[in-house]
Amino acid sequence: MSSNKLDRCLMSFSVNSQLPFPWQEKLWQHWSKQHQQGRMAHAYLLEGHKGLGKFHFAQCVASVLLCTSLTDGSACRACKSCQLLQAKSHPDLLVVTPEQEGKPIRVDQVRQLLGFASKTAQQGGYRVIIIYPADAMNINASNALLKCLEEPGDNTVILLITDTSSGLLPTIKSRCQRLQFTLPDPQSGINWLMAQESSLTQESATFLLNLASQAPLLACDYYQKDALAIRQQVLEGVKAITKRQVSPVSLAKQWQSIELSLVLTWLLDWLSDMIKISQLGCDRCCKNKDVTPMLTYIANKAGIQALYQYYDWLLIQRQHLLNQGNLNLPLLIEGVLIRWRGLTQR
After folding, report:
1. HSE on the CB side for 254, CA within 13 Å?
2. Would you call 179 helix, strand, or coil by DSSP?
3. Does residue 31 contact residue 179 with C-beta atoms inside 8 Å?
4. Containing domain of residue 199, as a range?
């Protein structure tokens, strides 16, 4: 699944609920207090790890701002405005996303946003603009947005969402109030995940959350695509190529049906553990306990310089993949495996 497809999958959690997730409660209370006291910012930057429900939070904010009959500070879900929102046809809500997967948000889209922000709200209340992912804006789009951030229309709230705020212009970040989304504590994440997927054991939920870096929605997505079984398949292949039991070309063919972004994410995760082992001389800080013996062996053979070089190269390849670059995927997989095997040829 590509990055944008995953984004839409994570968005889907928002369809049937206008309440924030449990781990968002403090941020929600903070924003609700601002709303109730009339101290809202005109623009918010929602930032944090993928899989924490930032888009869902933005929808919750929109539901409150657009509702005409709030009940105890929450959307009533019964007024005309709430019904329009549930039908995804509210005229005072604009969601700006890339027109194609892997493509940037273009300046023309932001110009349409400016036109939307200059109009009077059709339902007589707020206008809400959600930009996701905000870091997908190209430089022209970013510069065009600055005008709206500097001179927002009356009763207009802009919500920018990003997993990596480093991709945003400093001038954009400085004009937004930043809402930093943090990971839930491990047990809360486990409880939520097991409530969503009743067949999960605590052990499996814990493992999934570790794979997802403790991001609950990402862990839920992993479960739904059977990522545990896929990871085991990848792990067996990596063990085989480390032992010279299979060639990179042969293994690349076996992996053709596997989502490459997952493979690269797991390899980076294992490399991160190997770097810790090489630096600290022990495996106590390893995240991937089930593969510690293999990682220790490779780390000791490769050396810290080779591990860092491969890690940096793999990061670049994953970014190219996420950006939907013009890549020869079979050739990329072969290159990844050849370099992995090369770690133990020293």
Report:
1. 17
2. strand
3. yes
4. 185-225
